[in-house]
Design a protein that fits this description.
Layout: H1 2-6, E1 19-24, H2 34-46, E2 49-55, H3 59-68, E3 75-79, H4 91-101, E4 106-115, H5 123-140, E5 144-149, H6 152-162, E6 168-170, H7 177-185, E7 189-192, H8 202-210, E8 216-218, H9 240-251, H10 255-270
Parallel strand pairs: 1-2, 2-3, 3-4, 4-5, 5-6, 6-7, 7-8
């Protein structure tokens, strides 16, 4: 059992329509070189996950993510300083993130937001950094990718105070139906990770059911949050295919309908070129 827990899940059957993994961490999955990235995305494409957005959480990761987009045309990136790392977020860090966020294949500012679960960074530092990232997304005209952990009220309050960018993505949406309705009504996009497949996530299931087409995405947040029934094992972008199928069951829709919605929403929000097959 111990060895099994360390093994990647099997690559699932290919989806009938290609999708985008809206949020993953290729470097945390173990990718270092261009060959590593290509091998990882090849596995994803076999499952129908044809493109990925690899996301940074510190400066080193941001530099790597921006460079990785030049190694494989199926890879895009988002850059920011994670809220748990904002204890020290000075002018040098801001200048570097702004430079990297301007890269043509960096399609979002994120992940930024608030994390009240961990106490690595004071709340006031997190909130100040969040406001700065909101402004950066608006100045660049790129989507804002939000990390929100046990901070729903303050995230929504700060977005209202600052004025939300044109596109806002709640990465790994963790709210219930009430939170989902607030986000949907505001025009935000909810990104569902493997957590939506967990049997005990009843509030998240309700949120996934009420979210209209055009306002939801699927992500892995790999190497974390591996979908059921492989919870606890390492994750990779191909795991998004499991989540797409589970979402279809939750919503009472055909797999190809959910996959098509995920693909077209990702293309619109991230301004990706349209790619179709299947």
């Amino acid at each position: 059992m111990g060895d099994e827990k360390r093994e990647l899940p099997p690559v699932p059957d290919r989806l009938p329509v290609s999708v985008v993994d809206a949020h993953t961490h290729l470097d945390a999955c173990g990718a270092v070189t261009a060959a590593d990235v290509t091998a990882m995305v090849d596995r994803a494409e076999r499952a129908g996950v044809a493109r990925v957005v690899t996301v940074a959480d510190d400066l080193a990761s941001a530099r790597w993510a921006a460079e990785a987009t030049t190694w494989d045309n199926r890879v895009w990136a988002a850059v920011a300083i994670h809220p748990t790392r904002t204890k020290e977020f000075g002018e040098a860090e801001r200048a570097e993130i702004e430079r990297l966020a301007g890269h043509e294949r960096v399609v979002a500012v994120g992940e930024t937001g608030l994390d009240y679960y961990w106490d690595y960074s004071p709340r006031d530092a997190q909130q100040e950094a969040f406001r700065w990232h909101i402004d950066l997304a608006k100045r660049l005209g790129k989507p804002l990718m939000i990390h929100d952990r046990e901070a729903h009220d303050d995230v929504l309050r700060i977005l209202a105070e600052e004025g939300a960018p044109n596109a806002v993505i709640f990465h790994c949406f963790s709210g219930d139906a009430e939170m989902a309705r607030k986000c949907v009504d505001a025009g935000f996009v909810l990104s569902f990770a493997g957590t939506v497949t967990f049997k005990n996530a009843k509030g998240l299931h309700e949120a996934a059911r009420l979210c209209p087409p055009g306002q939801y995405l699927v992500e892995t947040d790999a190497p974390f949050l591996t979908p059921h029934p492989f919870r606890g094992r390492p994750n990779e972008p191909y795991g998004a295919a499991y989540t797409v199928r589970h979402l279809a069951t939750l919503r009472g829709e055909a797999v190809h309908e959910v996959a098509e919605s995920v693909r077209t929403t990702a293309e619109r929000v991230y301004r990706l070129p349209s790619v179709t097959w299947g």
